[in-house]
Structure formats: C-alpha cells, structure tokens
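pasting for the record
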Amino acid sequence: MPRRSRPAAVVLAPLSVVMVSALILLAGCSQQTQPREYGEQYEKNLMIGCTGVEPNDQGKYRDPTLGSVAYCQCVYEGLKEKVPFDDAKKFEEQQAEEKAGEIVVPKNIASVYDACRKANPEGAA
C-alpha cells in the first residue's frame, strides 16, 4: 500500500509557528527600521525568532528553546541563497495576518525548511 504524505501546510505548521514568532519579534521592534534585505539585522531577527533566545554578549545563541542554532542558521542561509527577499518579506506579512494552522508556505520557502530539517533533524523546530 503506498504511503501518503501529509500536505505541506500540515507538515510545516510547527515551523510556521516559529516563523510567526520571528515576525512578532520584528513587529515588536517598531522603533527600529525593518530590514529591507538579507543581512545582519534580518539574520538576528530570524535567529531570535527561530531559536527562541537572544544572543549573549558574544553573539552566541545559548540553550535554544525552539529550533537548534544549526537548523536556524541553515534556514537563514537557505532563504538568502534561494528565496528573493521580497518573497520572504511577503511570507512574513502573510503570517502576521493568518492563523497558524491556515498558513500556506510558498514552495521555495518550504524547500528551504525541508532541506534544513533533513540536514538537522534533531534541531528542527
């Protein structure tokens, strides 16, 4: 009997919650200018939202409560390499408006999550 795979929206729901957390963190920093491209500030925002912790004085994310540092770094690098910034930003905005169970992850972003989950199965959020 062939094995049926779950729809991407169901499989990626936990990660979507992590990414929504990152977006909330971004939105909460309304005093700061939001990043307009991939770079240091975008990476920091994503890492905080993905790991669930702030970096220490040395810039290290210790004892993550959500995704592992390796997994979250993989997500950032994958987005930067494979997803145009405008697509990532549009997805963040969509997450702010949708309920966690109703978020549809675009294929290019889902492929990054999947690759990072395979590379870091113990640390995927």
